[in-house]
Amino acid sequence: MYNFEFEKPSSIADAVAALGDEDATALGGGQTLLPTMKQRLASPTKVVSLLGISEMQGICTGDDGALCIGGATNHAAVAAGASAYPGLAALAGGIGDPAVRARGTIGGSLANNDPAACYPAAALGSGATIVTNAREIAADDYFQGMFTTALNEGEIITEVRFPVPEASNYQKFEQPASRFALVGVFVAKFSDGVRVAVTGASEEGVHRWTAAEEALSANFSADAVPAAPGADGMIADLHGTAAYRAHLVAVLTKRAVAAAG
Amino acid sequence: MPKDHGIGASPKRREDIRFLSGTGNYTDDMNVNGQAYVHFLRSDVAHGRIKSINLDAASAMPGVVKIFTGADFEGVGGIPCGWEVTDKHGNAMQEPAHPVLAQGKVRYVGDQIAAVVAESVEQARDAAEAIEVDIEELPAVVDMASALVDGSTKVHDDLTSNLCYDWGFVEENKPAVEAAFAEAAHVTTLELRNNRLVANPMEPRVAIGDFERASGNSTLFTTSQNPHVIRLLMGAFVLGIPEHKLRVVAPDVGGGFGTKIFHYAEEAFCTFAAKALNRAVKWTSTRSEAFISDAHGRDHVTTIQLALDADNNFTALRTDTMANMGAYLSTFAPSVPTWLHGTLMAGNYKTPLIYVNVKAVFTNTVPVDAYRGAGRPEATYQLERVVDKAAMELGVDPIALRRQNFITEFPYATPVAVEYDTGDYHATMDVLEKMADLSGFEARRKESEARGKLRGLGINCYIEACGIAPSNLVGQLGARAGLYESATVRVNATGGLVVMTGSHSHGQGHETAFPQVIAEMIGIDESMVEIEHGDTDKAPMGMGTYGSRSLAVGGSAMVRATEKIIAKTKKIAAHLMEAAEADIELKDGTFSVAGTDKSVAWGDVTLAAYVPHNYPLEDIEPGLEETAFYDPANFTYPSGAYACEVEVDPDTGKVTIEAFNAADDFGNVVNPMIVDGQVHGGIGQGIGQALLENAAYDENGQLLSASYMDYAMPRASDVPFYGVDHSCQTPCTHNPLGVKGCGEAGAIGSPPAVVNAVVNALRSGGHDIHHIDMPVSPSRVWQAMNG
Ligand SMILES: Cc1cc2nc3c(=O)[nH]c(=O)nc-3n(C[C@H](O)[C@H](O)[C@H](O)COP(=O)(O)OP(=O)(O)OC[C@H]3O[C@@H](n4cnc5c(N)ncnc54)[C@H](O)[C@@H]3O)c2cc1C
B356 and B502, same structural domain? Predict the structure, then answer.
């Protein structure tokens, strides 16, 4: 690790100001950033912890019924506290291990947008709104490919608002080593249609499987899930071919629909 | 009733108190006053010519003490190889130089280019980044078959090719084997790969070199399984320091699994630099470094063929293997695919004719050496897979085919040069059939099928060879070391004992099990016996712990030394009781005179040895301390039968292990609980190899699975509760304890059981497949099911 300055502001405004410096980086739970720094792959000159900002912590229900989660809320808190949205709570409870869940945050996960991460599937699958210090971003506009998002330099995710579906489920097929999603599928059934978001599979990062959404919006049953998508553009690596990942997308979508009930 | 003390009892491991309470003393816990820290600049290309190294900027960085490169090691010895294999033409293997720091070329990702010694680890790392190295990248030699093609890029320019040796065993058998194949009623052929593994002990390697100018003595603290071997190899061959000027200490070691047997460049560097700088130098490997600098294991590519007659008797076996050596020869690397592998090819079967060919190959990858089982898992895997495939092809029951071909008479001389002293393979199979409820398998399969899952049963038998010996024979086979073990038993005046053993415990529980043996021999409480190990200044020259040798060889040395002690104490007791020595009996810690009520306690006799007022000084010396060196007459041959039951999810290819049962014959058992633990750990690692672990290189020689993000280790949730049984005991005939060794059995016996089970499951689902290479990952299983 290289030397860096450390700040732990207690308000969003102070955090934004601290992040104004060139090469300053926000720190959530540190589950991605700290290992990267230890390996000397990241060298921020200043690290600004967001964990001292109380308005970025916790879970509540908005006037419109959406579940609002503070940007610095950790996975364990969501697993325990998002009972209004069981599909989301279960997803949070399946991330990493207890130590990771006690540290890692929803804001950090969405900002990082790892192509194998779980939260991006929930946010995109729910049609969530990513609230930052500056604006509100629809999930459909937020995710822009592996490790790429609509966030600007120094912009902080302060809150994530999840519309609560009638039924939902997340199916994660674990990559054997990292236990991130080799493929993960989040299915959410709303009164006006079904959303299906896929993580882990595509070179483009998290994405919606629109063919399945259409079919399931017409008939929400596992049998209605279309044949597996094409393997083109799917990730191929040590842990699975592109064809295998494409196949899993369909299998997991069926399972998610069946489990969502 | 199980015993509550002595041989056969299961006292809890006394060393666990410190391991579980954070009070162990590992090498990284140790610090020497004024120590500096070293960081190794490692190659990030697999193969390249070093054109220049510019240290100017780096040397000026804060905290830098000195930066060393290969140039500083000219005239210093290289890392030696401890085993010379002779090829099938009678020529010595090709043995490349192995410099402490790279000279001229880098040969794998991880090869040490320079070593920065600084006041702190972070300063050393900072300075390493400022070193300017100009490397001309060369094509990487990764695939073994391509490495052997004429005109391939050479890993070592001064060798004639990338072939280390072409070994034939037993070469004289070859024509007879060929003839048997020509006459066979059935031949089963199987091609397979034994996947490359990273050992991953929980504790990464650490070395601290220290030097005392006043005495000129060097000390190396290191994470080693055999400190005396390191002292000899490093002292004699690398640095030219005689043993009396060099102390090697391996304190608590957090797992070895083979990879801490070897003498590594980092150890030699720290010892060398401490003397050069007159200052202690410490190195602690990071986990990332461990992946690219600890010797890897396995990595064989094999074609095996089994010939059978019309009655399904095995008539001949032949096998061709390419064994990856990596870029340099690690300490025992050449012996693993040869003498630890070819000699085991008979397995549990009376196949009369066997021929083994092994080509050892240099590649631009991390050196490969012994890993839990070392050669024996590779032998067992191919043999038990081909037997299973033969059963499949012939449509016969795999257990029946095995039983039909079992060796039943002992001693049994195999056609691959070893003689099994004892065993009862039908008995272990009987135990297994019962404990694994094999007759209930079909019902369980139906129940799985009702849930949409494919269930498979995999059977495996193994034979293991532990305690490699005797020294004069292994010398003929090319070992550059002896393979005895030593023990010094020091009895204190008040009767307590300290045993200094050349064996080394890095998780095996010697501190608990060894005292059980001695306490039983004397009839005293185990708490009166303490084990010391891991310090060359304390224990006599010993060979350390690997190859499941500690109890069979180290324990035997301890028994011999204790026998000497008992003989002497009987003389003293005879004197004290004014009786004839021949009439003295020792039982429950009391000496008595046969046929009388005269007795004297152990403690009174030991006290007399040190306070020799009433003592036969004219006949025997005072004091009570004896040393023994034990050189075994033969290997020991544990064996067993394993059964694995898996479920395969046909939608995803995911394999789950539903049941795993192991019936082992380890001969006599000293501490059944510790043996259970050794078997559990071995099976866990074997399941890891079978389902999860894979050190994979890309064509440029980059390790793709160089962290836990991609290298899959088994976790508790990946394994079931094991059934473990070692009630079948055919004691070893040639060591005093009748013990055989249990440390590697699980890792040897489990991978074929798992793969056999997966293949069996898929076939039950109508998939016409015969083999899937390890690791049997979900993706590979799905691929196999979907052509
Ligand atoms: C062993 C292990 C297993 C894991 N398994 C899983 C898994 O199964 N599934 C899964 O989805 N994830 C997994 N993770 C990832 C983990 O859950 C975290 O979600 C992830 O590391 C990022 O969250 P964090 O709070 O730790 O962010 P940090 O590491 O602190 O930061 C990550 C990045 O996000 C930025 N950032 C942090 N917070 C904000 C914010 N509020 N606004 C804007 N930018 C911000 C930082 O600047 C940094 O660039 C695993 C991690 C580990 C270490």
Answer: no
